[in-house]
């Protein structure tokens, strides 16, 4: 078989009953054997190489066979349809409640959470909740909701740029410098104002793995509240660190132990040890 993906007409197999050429990017006019369809897609995927040797994608590429079996058990379930699959929904609920507990939610029963397709979607939901909370408070006070902004390090992962773009929120980046290699709450008063929907703290900066000191950011916001009355919430983007810090740095206070931390997101498919795509978000209440 020769297989040149860029051909408008891609040569395929010559087994009996099969067309020998198959148009690419056009809906097939004739049926084809399942083995042939499999082989075509399988061969094309081979060009991506071996996922376990790819250290760049930052997701789990190995699970033990029991976890593999559980994934296979769930292939045919439309998990999003929670009325039809209430036990699967209950298992999902169990998982985020375990995370609420791991991250020291004051009351697991009072927390809220969900699975997502990855940290990106979890961050979208976290950001959206911050925006809604701010909008409700502003409307209740009879003030404008036209110019929301979100404050975060210039080293945030691109999903935060997307969040600001999708939901019309001004992104305010605190630059990473030699003096402040991670966002630590310095000069925060220059960035936040009455239109700030929240501050993002990253537990595990994508490029370095560094933890932003959530407690210092929280203290800086406490000081701002004292002088301005602004009560600004923190979302912790714990894409990698929220699955690591509880085990390796249990004494580090970065989670719901800090009252200002309203929500935490993580990627199950990073250090949660599973294949893509699974993320999680938990809200304090
Ligand atoms: C800090 C941080 N936030 C968000 C994401 C997005 O995660 P995902 O790929 O699970 O959507 C990443 C991924 O590298 C990340 O490192």
UniProtKB/TrEMBL annotation:
SUPFAM superfamilies: PLP-dependent transferases
InterPro entries the record matches: Glutamate_decarboxylase, PyrdxlP-dep_de-COase, PyrdxlP-dep_Trfase, PyrdxlP-dep_Trfase_major
Annotated stretches, region: Disordered: 1-31
Cofactor(s) needed for function: pyridoxal 5'-phosphate
Catalytic activity: L-glutamate + H(+) = 4-aminobutanoate + CO2
Alphabetically ordered keywords of this record: Decarboxylase, Lyase, Pyridoxal phosphate
Class of this enzyme: lyase
One protein family per Pfam: Pyridoxal_deC
Record's keyword annotation contains NADP: no
Gene3D superfamilies: 4.10.280.50, Type I PLP-dependent aspartate aminotransferase-like (Major domain)
Biased amino acid composition, Basic and acidic residues: 15-29
Enzyme Commission number, as recorded: 4.1.1.15
Stored PANTHER family: GLUTAMATE DECARBOXYLASE
Family assignment from sequence similarity: Belongs to the group II decarboxylase family.
Name listed for the protein in its UniProt record: Glutamate decarboxylase
Species whose genome carries this gene: Microbacterium trichothecenolyticum (Aureobacterium trichothecenolyticum)
Organism placement in taxonomy: Bacteria, Bacillati, Actinomycetota, Actinomycetes, Micrococcales
């Amino acid at each position: 078989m020769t297989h040149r993906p860029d051909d408008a007409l891609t040569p395929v197999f010559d087994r009996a009953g099969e067309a020998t050429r198959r148009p690419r990017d056009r809906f097939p006019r004739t049926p084809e054997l399942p083995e042939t369809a499999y082989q075509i897609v399988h061969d094309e995927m081979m060009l991506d190489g071996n996922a376990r040797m790819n250290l760049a994608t930052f997701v789990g590429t190995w699970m033990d066979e029991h976890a593999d079996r559980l994934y296979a058990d769930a292939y045919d379930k439309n998990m999003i349809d929670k009325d039809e699959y209430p036990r699967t929904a209950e298992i999902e609920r169990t998982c985020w409640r375990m995370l609420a507990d791991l991250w020291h939610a004051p009351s697991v029963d009072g927390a809220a959470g969900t699975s997502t397709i990855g940290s990106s979607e979890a961050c979208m939901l976290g950001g959206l909740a911050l925006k809604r909370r701010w909008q409700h408070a502003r409307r209740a006070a009879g003030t404008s909701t036209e110019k929301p902004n979100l404050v975060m390090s210039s080293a945030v992962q691109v999903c935060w740029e997307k969040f600001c773009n999708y939901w019309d929120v001004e992104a305010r980046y605190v630059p990473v410098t030699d003096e402040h290699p991670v966002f630590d709450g310095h000069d925060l008063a220059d960035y936040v104002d009455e239109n700030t929907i929240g501050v993002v703290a990253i537990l595990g900066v994508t490029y370095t793995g560094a933890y932003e000191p959530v407690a210092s950011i929280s203290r800086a916001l406490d000081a701002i509240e004292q002088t301005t009355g602004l009560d600004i919430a923190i979302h912790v983007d714990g894409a990698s660190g929220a699955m690591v810090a509880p085990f390796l740095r249990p004494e580090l206070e970065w989670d719901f132990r800090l009252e200002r931390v309203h929500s935490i997101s993580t990627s199950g498919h990073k250090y949660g040890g599973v294949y893509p795509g699974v993320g999680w978000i938990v809200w304090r209440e």
